[in-house]
Amino acid sequence: MNGSRATALAPRVAPRVRLRPTLQSDLDYVLTLEQDPQNLPFITPWERTQHEAAIRFPDFRHFIIESGDALQAAGFLILIGCKSQHRSLELKRMVVQHQGQGVGRAALRVAKKVSFDDLGAHRFWLDVKTHNTRARALYDTEGFVVEGVLRESVRVAAGFESLTVMSMLAHEFADRRALSLELPA
Ligand SMILES: CC(C)(COP(=O)(O)OP(=O)(O)OC[C@H]1O[C@@H](n2cnc3c(N)ncnc32)[C@H](O)[C@@H]1OP(=O)(O)O)[C@@H](O)C(=O)NCCC(=O)NCCS
Fold it and tell me: Which pTM value belongs to this model?
């Protein structure tokens, strides 16, 4: 078999991923990722002060995604509602630096584990721009259920965009875990 074909067929090795709390000194990195033109169409970037608040407020968890052998910064994600009496946590944002290499899936698995196991979530939810096919494919294959569409709810330069709301409940996470679908990606 020719070498390049063998490479093409080789299964992707799942990246090692870890989450650690974001520090003030990480915020230049976070803001640079948010402002990257490849990411801007899919998110509504925050001011630095909003990230600073998210680092401090107990209801938020702001994480740097670390990946690779050296566990270098590979992205960030933010959870909201960590103190919610309703135990309904939101994945507010996830941005990965080098995309399409499995880091997003691996980080989402860790985020689910943190949300359900550590933070006691009953419901873990998110909204995603309806045109964000990559992120939607990821959430779909990670077991998130579509709840509905917030039609034309985001104002952008070209008009309005819709958001798809997706969620997973604690018993659905437990079912996936029982099926070994929640192993490290
Ligand atoms: C969305 C995002 C976090 C996903 O992380 P990632 O590391 O790129 O994703 P992965 O490599 O783990 O791929 C996850 C799945 O997305 C889908 N996917 C990957 N690349 C894709 C592409 N170019 N087009 C469509 N779907 C794609 C596939 O289903 C893939 O799973 P598979 O390769 O195992 O079949 C990342 O692409 C990102 O930061 N995008 C910009 C910001 C953003 O959209 N954030 C989410 C806002 S809700």
Answer: 0.93
